[in-house]
């Protein structure tokens, strides 16, 4: 019977075996592995995601477009840095982690999903207020809601890493 080859790419998780192993074995000092800078990264990411959603209230179409695209790019850069700061624990499959790391990741996911449920209510409220019959409809000058959708998708994608980055202690630098 042939032995299964270890998977090199984990499509559902969006990572590769090499990426996870390099990140977990990296011993170089990094500011992103200290709790303070990680928390600042989490706060910055939260502000940028909120700004992306609230960009719908910018009245000038050109200014709105020139604001949304850099905000989306910033979201992506911050997301990649968040993943690095937690050593890709939030995205790693079980077979590449030990029991302690799996427990840490799973606890982070529990908190992230509870937060996502609460934050989803804020998005539903925002959408309710900006619909044509809503209280804030007169402040919305563009019918396109793609930035709210992208903001929500970025929140969904980054929240597990944000929770881990906030909760993890600083690593000991040698």
SSE arrangement:
Blueprint: E1 9-10, E2 15-16, H1 17-25, H2 35-54, H3 61-85, H4 99-130, H5 146-167
Antiparallel strand pairs: 1-2
What does this structure look like?
By secondary structure, this protein is mostly helical. Helices cover 62% and strands 2% of the residues. The chain has five helices and two strands; from the N terminus they run E-E-H-H-H-H-H. The chain has helices at 17-25, 35-54, 61-85, 99-130, 146-167, and strands at residues 9-10, 15-16. It has a two-stranded antiparallel sheet. A hairpin with a 4-residue loop joins strand 1 (9-10) and strand 2. Helix 2 packs antiparallel against helix 3 (61-85), helix 2 runs antiparallel to helix 5 and helix 4 (99-130) packs antiparallel against helix 5. The longest helix is centred in the middle third of the chain and has 32 residues, at 99-130. It is elongated, with a radius of gyration of 19 Å. The termini are far apart. The model has no long low-confidence stretch (mean pLDDT 86).
